Amino acid sequence: MSQTSRPSRESDKENAPPNPNASAIQSRTTRAPRRAHSEIDCSGDEGDHGDGPRESAFGLGPRKRACRTDPLVHHGRHFGRTIQAFCRVQTLIKNGMTRSFEMQVEGITEADLSDPMERREHGIYKALLNLSPGLEERLCTGSDEDIFHVAEMIQKGSSSARADDTKGLKTVIIDWITPPGQCLNPPLARNVKTDRGFYHEATGRLLCPIDEDWNDQETRELLRSGVKTVSGDQWPLLLFKDYKYNPDNIWDGLFRSQLLVNAFKHIFTSPSSVDREPRATRSGNARIHGMTSVTIGSLAYVATQVRFALSSSPVFSRTDLQTDSERFYESIMEAFHDPVYEVQVKALLEWWNKQIFPAQVGGSRPLKKGSVLARMKEQAGHPHRNRQVLGASNSQTSSSTSASTAAVADSNTPPTFGSTAQPTTSTTSQTTGPTT
């Protein structure tokens, strides 16, 4: 019997029919790993967006990656954090465009609007236009579908930023309310909120409104049982410096608690900036968006996020009656935009700018004492000293010039009769004629 040799494995592979799924398999195996999405500047524009002084174009910009999302989503994130967190963007744009047309026809300005809420809404619309370059032209020339898409993308960015910040503060805020070197009793879980709010001594004291006495046992029981509800316009103790308030002067320490400062840095600069850790981190949201000063909207946003992080509510909802977050946010915005408190709000924003953006306060970084630039600037501020220095310099220059002129004149002047001076010897030979 003849034996036939079995073909090798290589021959089997060569003679086998092609696999129709081979390309798909290869694509899946060679596909690059998914990179974590981080907020980036999709527009490439890091100029002024209406948040205080215009950022300088000098110096290195933030590190950025290639854009993967619609630039409008990027602008929507900053819009929700710094301008208006709770907003129906489509209605805002529709009303803003209609109002702008009416104002142009009637020849009036924003200051001529009689309704304060209408005036504030139009200011928010204009801030949105300034936030996104070319947005106004796009809205005026686009179709209804384009306008709907713009509103949808901005709304998406605002919602996603709020969700990211809610998730980030949920864990770290436990570290901030824990006394140094101590532990909370009972301890609180970092990822579970059911034991927070009025159910825990540490969080309950911070969330307690200033018009309620947390030290009263009956008050604590009523708050924990839900019999006594807290509305959004009842501001909690967490807003005040050292968590103490002065009933005779409510503005004393208001919105100056360390908890708010930590949360603001965590959201806008970087999580590591809270503890001032000297390590390189990716660019913060403020740097990415060219933000150089604190806004009223950003303060209200941070306070709302901190208040929710301390609560026992698991999901951030604008209609949640337990936290009443939207009413809390709007009460801050209404109070800080009231002209009655203009002086207090201005002083508060100046204090916040020193905490978050110290390099922007005063317009430039202070010079080191004793340096050349500092001494030059000091001398520039003393005109009398400058005149003395300039006069001495001119006197020395004048004396030097006079001496040089005199030396040249002496060398060219011929000697007079009876003078002991000798004429200058010339290198050129001269022929003298006979005397007559």
UniProtKB/TrEMBL annotation:
<protein>
    <submittedName>
        <fullName>Uncharacterized protein</fullName>
    </submittedName>
</protein>
<feature type="region of interest" description="Disordered">
    <location>
        <begin position="376"/>
        <end position="436"/>
    </location>
</feature>
<feature type="compositionally biased region" description="Low complexity">
    <location>
        <begin position="392"/>
        <end position="436"/>
    </location>
</feature>
<dbReference type="InterPro" id="IPR046521">
    <property type="entry name" value="DUF6698"/>
</dbReference>
<feature type="compositionally biased region" description="Polar residues">
    <location>
        <begin position="21"/>
        <end position="30"/>
    </location>
</feature>
<feature type="compositionally biased region" description="Basic and acidic residues">
    <location>
        <begin position="36"/>
        <end position="54"/>
    </location>
</feature>
<feature type="region of interest" description="Disordered">
    <location>
        <begin position="1"/>
        <end position="65"/>
    </location>
</feature>
<dbReference type="Pfam" id="PF20414">
    <property type="entry name" value="DUF6698"/>
</dbReference>
